[in-house]
Design a protein that fits this description.
With about 130 residues, this protein is mainly β. It is about 10% helix and about 40% strand.
């Protein structure tokens, strides 16, 4: 039986470990386009094209108490690219990375009597998922 431990998943942004994740999902990643784009002609002939689009997004949900919020807001305001990697050290873990990532926008977390979650979207020019 496999045992999954979310504490064995690390997120590193420009050499800094991200901490203070929100409850539930720790991180997610997705390419913007499919790898293969089918074309079906009027006679039913199918031709597949390989997409050159390697862009994607990585979503990082952080609790409002996370010290990483200020760090990611600083990167958003700098508007400069940075490397990002998500490494899953669990057995059979899937990893992702990009050499050119950008924080989509700075976030001002909702303030209230309960701890909330702020979701940062990292736009990636060259998202690789293995």
């Amino acid at each position: 039986m496999a045992l999954y431990d979310q504490s064995k998943v690390t997120v590193v942004v420009d050499g800094t470990y991200i901490t203070g994740f929100g409850e539930g999902t720790k991180v997610s990643a997705e390419r913007n386009e499919d790898n293969i784009v089918p074309y079906v002609g009027a006679d039913g002939t199918v031709t597949n094209a390989v997409s050159a689009d390697e862009t994607g997004t990585i979503t990082i949900p952080l609790a409002i108490s996370s010290p990483s919020i200020a760090y990611l807001n600083g990167l958003a305001n700098a508007k400069k690219p940075f490397p990002i990697s998500v490494t899953d050290f669990n057995d059979g873990g899937v990893n992702c990375s990009a050499t050119q990532g950008y924080v989509a926008k700075p976030i001002f977390p909702e303030k209230g009597k309960e701890v909330t979650v702020a979701e940062f979207t990292i736009l990636c020019d060259d998202l690789s998922i293995q």
